[in-house]
Specification:
Layout (H helix, E strand, L loop, with lengths): L2 H26 L7 H18 L5 H13 L5 H32 L7 H37 L2
Keywords: Signal
Organism: Sorangium cellulosum (Polyangium cellulosum)
Protein name: Secreted protein
């Protein structure tokens, strides 16, 4: 083989590599080749992850993130279970923290403003925190099931 044949072979390999490199962004594009259910599961998982990882304060920001989870479409049973279980667990938690904040505000105000309602608010907050802790494992299990289903291609 001469130098010309070696050069042609190298040029052919380089052309093939260039073609593969040009196709890589298309193949790696988000959502390419995914079904609608897979894209839906990915969006739901992301929304729940963002909510879970969000700081506790400001509460309004977490409320907005929870509302986004509650609005996520969920057309498959695993997605519905994950959305509903996690939305319930986080709704209880956020409602409890809001009630606790109201009680703290009442206790910080002049003594006359904290009445028996503050005690019932505190008891309600405590009950919601306990219930949230009880349903949070169902959220985690539903998320695991959704991730498994998404890996299998829904």
């Amino acid at each position: 083989m001469g130098a010309a044949a070696t050069a042609r072979r190298r040029t052919g390999r380089l052309a093939a590599l260039a073609a593969l490199a040009a196709l890589a962004p298309v193949a790696a594009a988000p959502g390419c080749g995914q079904s609608a259910a897979d894209r839906e599961a990915d969006a739901l998982l992301h929304a729940i992850d963002v909510l879970r990882d969000a700081p506790s304060e400001p509460r309004a920001a977490r409320e907005a993130l929870l509302a986004a989870v509650e609005r996520q479409p969920a057309s498959t049973p695993p997605a519905q279970r994950a959305r509903d279980a996690c939305a319930r667990a986080y709704r209880l938690l956020l409602d409890a923290t809001a009630a606790e904040a109201r009680v703290r505000a009442l206790l910080a105000a002049p003594a006359a403003s904290a009445g028996p309602g503050a005690l019932s608010d505190l008891a309600a907050a405590d009950a919601k925190i306990k219930e949230s802790a009880e349903v949070m494992p169902a959220c985690a299990e539903a998320l695991s099931a959704l991730r498994r289903a998404a890996r299998r291609g829904m």
